[in-house]
Structure formats: structure tokens, C-alpha cells
Specification:
Elements lengths: L1 E4 L1 H6 L3 E2 L11 E9 L2 E8 L5 E7 L1 H5 L1 H16 L4 H11 L3 E3 L4 H21 L8 H8 L4 E3 L2 E3 L1 H10 L2
Parallel strand pairs: 1-3, 1-6, 2-6
Antiparallel strand pairs: 3-4, 4-5, 7-8
Length: about 170
């Protein structure tokens, strides 16, 4: 699994390379960015191909030491389970992701999609909640991915595309 990090997030992580990493697996390429919501550190992950997003609120310093195993993989599994994926499919996803590698080579198209999700989907939901930590991360991620978007000129639904990718494993 390759996670392309923004500079803000890369400053919090260790073992982040500047050279672009590649992985041919359909679940492998993700972008991630660090955002501050209600003075809390939050990370938004976005799958490069499907624009499927995962939002992890309230991270602390110790979470960044093992971001992939402590935050990303459990959140992805919980969100896919909320989308109706079977236990067998979730096990395949866990095996397919492999170890996380981080770099700072970002794609402006994916970052733009992340900014749109933050502005159009996340901030209105946070404004209705008393605190960002009161929000269920898996449910919020599922809701934010149930929207049409464009990726590389093609119209797609991130949640449906991610379920297709998982079913093809």
C-alpha cells in the first residue's frame, strides 16, 4: 500500500520518502492529508482511483507512529463492512493492502477531490455536531463517499466503485 502524503502530514510521520512509489494493486494507491477540525488533528485518506474517502478524527502523536495499522486499516475495514462487504472480502482486503509505504509525491487532481469533500461534505456535518470526536468515523466516511464525483474525466460514485474493486479481489 502506498500513501502519498501532503507536506503537513509527512512532517508528522517517519520514513516518508521524496521519491514517488508505485504499486500496481488496485487498492494500493491512496492520498492522505492532515487537517485541523475543532482544534483536533484529523487525517483524510482518499483512494486514487475511486475517490473513496476515509476520515479519521482526533489523532494524537502516538497515532502517527503507526498510522496505517492503528488508524487506516481498521477504519477501512469498518467502512467497507458498513457498505455491506462480507467477512471474506474484508479478509482479502486486509491481505491485499500489505505494509504501508509513504511518499510526498501527490497528484493535484486527488488533492482537489479531497478539498471538495472537506468543504462540501465534512464541514457541514461537523457544524451540526457538538464536537468532531462525537462523529462515528466509519459512518461519516461511508456517508461522504455516497456522492457522485469525477476522476480523470469519468463520472463515478466512490462507494460503488470501491465495492466493485473489493469484489474483484
Amino acid at each position: 500500500m502506498v500513501v502519498h502524503c501532503t507536506r503537513k502530514l509527512a512532517a508528522r510521520l517517519r520514513d516518508v520518502g521524496a521519491t514517488p512509489l508505485a504499486d500496481a494493486h488496485p487498492l494500493a494507491a491512496w492520498h492522505a492529508g492532515l487537517y485541523h477540525v475543532d482544534r483536533r488533528q484529523c487525517v483524510l485518506f482518499c483512494h486514487d482511483e475511486s475517490r473513496f474517502v476515509l476520515f479519521q478524527p482526533g489523532l494524537r502523536k502516538e497515532h502517527f507512529a503507526d498510522l496505517a495499522n492503528a488508524c487506516f486499516k481498521p477504519l477501512l475495514t469498518a467502512t467497507l463492512a458498513a457498505l455491506g462487504c462480507s467477512l471474506a472480502q474484508l479478509a482479502k482486503v486486509a491481505l491485499a493492502l500489505g505494509p504501508a509505504r509513504f511518499d510526498t509525491a501527490v497528484d493535484r487532481s486527488v488533492l482537489s477531490a479531497m478539498n471538495i469533500v472537506i468543504t462540501d461534505e465534512l464541514y457541514p456535518r461537523v457544524a451540526r455536531a457538538a464536537n468532531v470526536l462525537d462523529l462515528d468515523a466509519a459512518e461519516l466516511s461511508r456517508e461522504m463517499s455516497e456522492r457522485p464525483t469525477r476522476a480523470r474525466g469519468k463520472l463515478l460514485w466512490p462507494d460503488r466503485r470501491m465495492v466493485e474493486i473489493v469484489a474483484a479481489l
